[in-house]
């Protein structure tokens, strides 16, 4: 299956510009899960900018009705 990196980049809200996984969703998700976190695209833009991608942060956002 071909990666659609160009298409994925149009929807990627990750603010970490030097990331080599930007737009390569499988690699991004795999990396973040190994780090016990979620990719930036799981978070609203303002929450993603904090770079706190922990499961706990995501859970707090869900509880607050923001996700």
Q: How would you describe what is shown here?
A:
The chain has helices at residues 5-11, 25-34, 45-48, 55-63. It has four helices and no strands. By secondary structure, it is mostly helical. The protein has a domain at 19-63.
Write the layout of secondary structure elements.
Blueprint: H1 5-11, H2 25-34, H3 45-48, H4 55-63
How many strand units? 0
Shape: globular
Instruction: Write the element-wise H/E pattern from the N-terminal end onward.
Output: HHHH
Distance between the termini: 30 Å
* Relative strand content: under 5%
Largest sheet: none
Average pLDDT metric? 95
Secondary structure class reads: mainly alpha
**What integer value in Å does the Rg equal?**
12 Å
What is the helix content? 40-55%
The poorly predicted ranges are none
